[in-house]
Amino acid sequence: MPELSTVKSNYSSLPHNEQLILKRVWAHLYNFWNIPIPSTSYLYDSTTTDGEEEIEDHIGEPMINGTKHSQFNLLDIDPDLLYKEFWEMLRVESPDCHLLRFVKARKFHVDKTIHMLSKNFKFRHIHQLNQLLNDGEYKILSHEENNAGVIVCLKKQKAVIIGHDKYEKPIILVRPKFHYSSDQPEIELEKYALLIIETSRLFMMEGAITILFDLTDFSLSNMDYAPVKFIITCFEAHFPESLGSLLIHKAPWLFSPIWAIIKNWLDPVVASKIVFTKSTKDLNKYIDTDQLPKYLKGENDSIDLNQYTPPDGTHDDLLHLKEDDDDDFEYKKRQSILEKRDHLIKRYQDINIQWIQTKDELESQKLWNIKCEIGEELCQNYVELDPYVRSRSSYDINGTLKL
After folding, report:
1. Does residue 147 share a domain with residue 125?
2. Which secondary structure element, helix H or strand E, spans residue 363, and what is its range?
3. 0.85 cut: is pTM over it?
């Protein structure tokens, strides 16, 4: 059975030596953002605490003789812009929980974590992921000239977020039988995949997702290696610790040589999460019947898989508020939520800097607990802010996404 633990499961009780590694990662982030943190040299002391074995780490201080040393500084992106994008992308995930995905994916090795985060920042910037999610399906549908292939994917519902598995992980149901490479250019298929993954982050919050590849009626004409490789790269490099299980259902005999190629692209962590299923009984080991769609002999009819109902923009009134709008109450409410968010981020940063600086283990744990509380407040604040910044998706409208 695939690994069932999530980042959330031991997030609030992170051991002291693992906190030390996370402090170093934060120190490099602040260095890149030009936020000064004095007195951090102790973080790079080779001695250990209370006889604990030091976690492997091969990176020096972010400031050496006044010169910055960090993978982040190799990015040709404005640090202020990335600072803004970092806080916007968290949404319903706390800052530490997000960074821990990368730290754990790189086995608490700081320089590898920094390298991974740097590539992720670049990736998110290139693909404009915050904007993609905020604009949502409606913006894509409104600009058909640039998104014809994405619209084909949406209308065919090649991938939908439906139900949850036995461990409360949301499910992305992928139906390759509807895919033909001629339907869209590769870049638009990637955009569609990223929209689905980014939307799924709202469902999974600080946990993980399950992907169900249903190969019912799959044929060689549906096979397209490029998007498969892209999705694998996404979960290995850009959405680490976000995949709970990957179920491949009803793989036909012709899939065997295809699988022989694909499995060579997988790192051991992702490979360990893959399970092949043949029947509803097999699926029920991971997903209850009431969460499976009816065509898979389940009882979940929350989404009409035969007919896509596109958002028409009528649910997005709160996105277009202006100071002189007649509905002054909603404008003031949005401003109040934004001001509270700025305050929470400032408060979090102040506590975070104290936490990074402290050498005392008890004080460090006390500050860590406060950070966890503020992180939860940030998540709740985003829930209030969400209708004012993100276009309503089909999942919001049909009621399956409830923050």
Report:
1. no
2. helix 361-389
3. yes
